[in-house]
């Protein structure tokens, strides 16, 4: 079957010689359907097949590539045939190597005695020399040997039934056929990209490099292309806002901010003052504010949010503050009522379970207003009823995702504040902003954002940073302990309770799971720890509890009626109890670094020294390294950078963060220089387009 002529980048791979319906289906499992898909299928690693180790040179514990001929092979079964092992013995004239696959007897179909086989793996024993589940490739003589041997050879991700050698051969043929079709995406940047390989050269070097360094240079060039596309979209979005968005005048007149600051009881840090100047400048500008406020745990973002809200309220506009959980929304509601109530500013709560009657009235939609007048229910039970607001009086609305729903429609939305932005998607923030006519937007996060993410995920936002912690905060010391030290940990915690302090104990799961050996669940540990800490009272908090039960437990913990709060990561954001000075996190290796840093931030909120104790069976060097980073530093930015390297942007931001760019070649953990260059080049493209 001849190669298809002519072809395009959209030509189906099934039209190529040797790709029948069965192989085409296997390729489709890897999302490889067209010429373009195949060319963008990055090798997952490379082997320098110009030099091999002999079998005798293999070192126990080190990954290496060797080759030889199969001199024996077979399947061994035991336990009445329920267990099996396929094994072949490889010989190269220097020694023999046993290669084994457990419970994979189908591997017998892929090899024959006498086959020349290339093997990549780690020697697990040297008496006899043994590898378990190595990567293998049967070597064949013929005209294509130059593709597979005596070169830097690509190794691709596969699916069962798709041989490595066959896929590499297909890549060679498709690349040769398509090379003339690969054009520069932005020829107008030819001068700026003159020092880089062309896109066609980059794709050739990505798959079949002369040297390993050529493959990395090729990846960087292809990454630069996709980062430029991403930055162009970001900058066009910002340009569109600047062209069409007319800013609401929300600079305020200080009539409420001055008495608010006078009654705070503390002085703002220099960082808070600097950020407020930046925000006031934006609110009084000609373009709607789009700003990201980064501040490590305890840096005072809520006070800044209060001040910027007052600026908009002074200007006659409504303000909406969206939080990711009802617990945090309820806490914000109580705090803002305490702060704004004396100023005569209406504050309303708007969540899935709770909508103050006044908020429903202003929104024009929603539930039934009780006949007895404005009241609150659920999380707001027992609080003072919200005062009715006149149709023209500006108000503050605090809520959760419920603010996005149709039932929330404020009269004059001037400012949107999104707290803990990383818990929301880009779509969420856009929906809330559309509730008004180009309202100002402030998104806040206590999870410091690495610069690469700041320039991509939030590239259309201006960035402010709170880099100071208010005076009077106690120091937090962090310790890593193994599970066998738990009795000592509980003894230490009991001593702190005797001093009148409170504590959190956090677990990764709500309930035990059959597939989670050794991972503890908060519901299972509750009874045990209630006895351990008696007579101190222990509370239980997790996301599956009814909303009013969650509120009851949190209120009891805040009021000191509960001394120890057993919880899941539901307490990760916003929970603020100054008397809580101990945080114990069991199975700490189940959490990401940034999440552990957030959890740790729940203590140290008052003047007392606090302790965070990470309990984990850190038997691997990776787990020990991760937890060691947290014990060594409280610098959220360093922790976030390490978390990005370990987990990548998608995992770091969470599945809901729908704006995470689907990069094929770029790496937001390491490609800061490329991100910065792409931002500059995209600016030239967008500027030239007018």
Characterization of this structure:
By secondary structure, the protein is α/β, with parallel strands linked by helices. Among the domains are: 1-44 and 158-174, no CATH class; 45-155, Nucleic acid-binding proteins (OB fold (Dihydrolipoamide Acetyltransferase, E2P)), CATH 2.40.50; 476-653, Rossmann fold. Helix content is 34%, strand content 18%. The strands form 4 sheets. Strands 6-7-4-3-2-5-8 form a 7-stranded mixed sheet, with no helix packed on it. A 7-stranded parallel sheet has the order 12-13-11-14-15-10-16, sandwiched between helices. Residues 357-390 and 652-658 have low confidence and may be disordered.
Describe the secondary structure blueprint for this structure.
Layout: H1 21-29, H2 35-39, E1 45-48, E2 63-78, E3 83-91, E4 96-102, E5 116-122, E6 125-126, E7 129-132, E8 135-139, H3 145-148, E9 152-155, H4 164-178, H5 199-207, H6 212-244, H7 257-262, H8 270-283, E10 290-295, H9 301-314, E11 318-322, H10 326-340, E12 347-350, H11 357-363, E13 396-399, E14 413-418, H12 426-433, E15 440-445, H13 451-456, E16 462-466, E17 476-481, H14 486-498, E18 502-506, H15 522-532, E19 538-541, H16 547-558, E20 564-567, E21 580-586, H17 593-600, E22 610-615, H18 621-632, H19 636-653, H20 672-689
Parallel strand pairs: 4-7, 10-15, 10-16, 11-13, 11-14, 12-13, 14-15, 17-22, 18-20, 18-21, 19-20, 21-22
Antiparallel strand pairs: 1-9, 2-3, 2-5, 3-4, 5-8, 6-7
């Amino acid at each position: 079957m001849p190669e298809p002529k002519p072809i395009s980048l959209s030509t189906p791979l099934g039209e190529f010689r040797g790709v029948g319906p069965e192989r085409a289906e296997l390729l489709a499992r890897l999302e490889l359907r067209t010429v373009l898909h195949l060319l963008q299928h990055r090798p997952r690693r490379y082997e320098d097949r110009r030099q091999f180790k002999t079998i005798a040179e293999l070192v126990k514990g080190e990954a290496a590539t060797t080759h030889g001929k199969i001199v024996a092979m077979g399947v061994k079964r035991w336990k009445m045939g329920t267990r099996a092992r396929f094994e072949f013995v490889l010989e190269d004239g220097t020694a023999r190597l046993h290669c084994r696959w457990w419970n994979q007897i189908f591997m017998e179909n892929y090899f024959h005695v006498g086959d020349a086989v290339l093997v990549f793996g780690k020697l697990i024993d040297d008496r006899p020399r043994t590898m378990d589940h190595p990567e293998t490739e049967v070597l064949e003589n013929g005209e294509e040997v130059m593709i597979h041997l005596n070169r830097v050879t690509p190794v691709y991700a596969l699916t069962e039934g798709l041989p490595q050698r066959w896929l590499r051969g297909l890549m060679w043929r498709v690349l040769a056929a398509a090379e003339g079709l690969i054009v520069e995406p932005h020829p107008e940047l030819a001068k700026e990209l003159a020092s880089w390989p062309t896109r066609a050269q980059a794709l050739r070097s990505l798959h079949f490099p002369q040297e390993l360094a050529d493959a990395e240079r090729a990846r960087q060039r292809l990454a630069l292309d996709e980062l430029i596309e991403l930055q162009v979209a970001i900058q066009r979005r910002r340009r569109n806002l600047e062209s069409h968005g007319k800013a609401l005048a929300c600079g305020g007149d200080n009539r409420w901010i001055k008495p608010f600051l006078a009654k705070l009881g503390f002085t703002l840090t220099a960082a808070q003052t600097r950020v407020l100047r930046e925000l006031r400048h934006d609110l009084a500008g000609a373009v709607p504010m789009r700003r990201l406020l980064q501040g490590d745990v305890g840096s005072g973002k809520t006070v800044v949010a209060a001040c910027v809200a007052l600026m908009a309220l002074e200007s006659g506009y409504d303000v909406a503050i969206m939080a990711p959980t009802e617990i945090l929304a309820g806490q914000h509601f109580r705090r803002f009522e305490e702060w704004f109530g004396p100023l005569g500013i209406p504050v309303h709560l708007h969540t899935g379970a709770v909508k103050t009657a006044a908020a429903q009235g202003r929104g024009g939609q929603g539930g039934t207003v009780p006949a007895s007048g404005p009241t609150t229910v659920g999380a707001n039970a027992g609080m003072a009823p919200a005062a009715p607001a006149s149709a023209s009086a500006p108000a503050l609305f605090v809520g959760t995702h419920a603010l996005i729903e149709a039932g929330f429609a404020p009269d004059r939305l001037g400012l949107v504040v999104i707290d803990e932005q990383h818990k929301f998607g880009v779509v969420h923030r856009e929906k809330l902003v559309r509730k008004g006519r180009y309202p100002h937007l402030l998104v806040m996060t206590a999870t410091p954002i690495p610069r690469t993410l700041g320039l991509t995920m939030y590239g259309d936002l201006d960035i402010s940073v709170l880099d100071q912690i208010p005076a009077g905060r106690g120091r937090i010391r962090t310790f890593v302990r193994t599970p066998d030290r738990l009795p000592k940990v509980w003894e230490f915690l009991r001593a702190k309770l005797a001093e009148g302090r409170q504590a959190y104990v956090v677990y990764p799961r709500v309930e035990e799971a059959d597939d989670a050996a050794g991972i503890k669940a908060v519901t299972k540990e509750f009874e045990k720890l209630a006895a351990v800490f008696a007579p101190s009272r222990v509370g239980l908090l997790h996301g599956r509890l009814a909303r009013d039960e969650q509120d009851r437990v949190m209120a009891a913990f805040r009021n000191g009626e509960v001394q120890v709060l057993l919880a899941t990561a539901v307490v990760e954001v916003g929970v603020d109890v100054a008397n809580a000075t101990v945080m114990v996190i069991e199975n700490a290796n189940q959490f990401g670094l940034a999440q552990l840093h957030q959890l740790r931030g729940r203590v140290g909120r008052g003047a007392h020294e606090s302790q965070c104790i990470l309990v984990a069976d850190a038997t691997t060097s990776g787990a020990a390294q991760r937890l060691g980073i947290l014990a060594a530093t409280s610098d959220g930015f360093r922790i976030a950078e390490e978390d990005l390297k370990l987990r990548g942007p998608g995992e770091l931001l969470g599945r809901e963060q729908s704006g995470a760019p689907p990069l094929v070649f770029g790496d937001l953990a390491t490609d800061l220089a490329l991100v910065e260059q792409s931002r500059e080049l995209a600016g030239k493209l967008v500027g030239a387009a007018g």
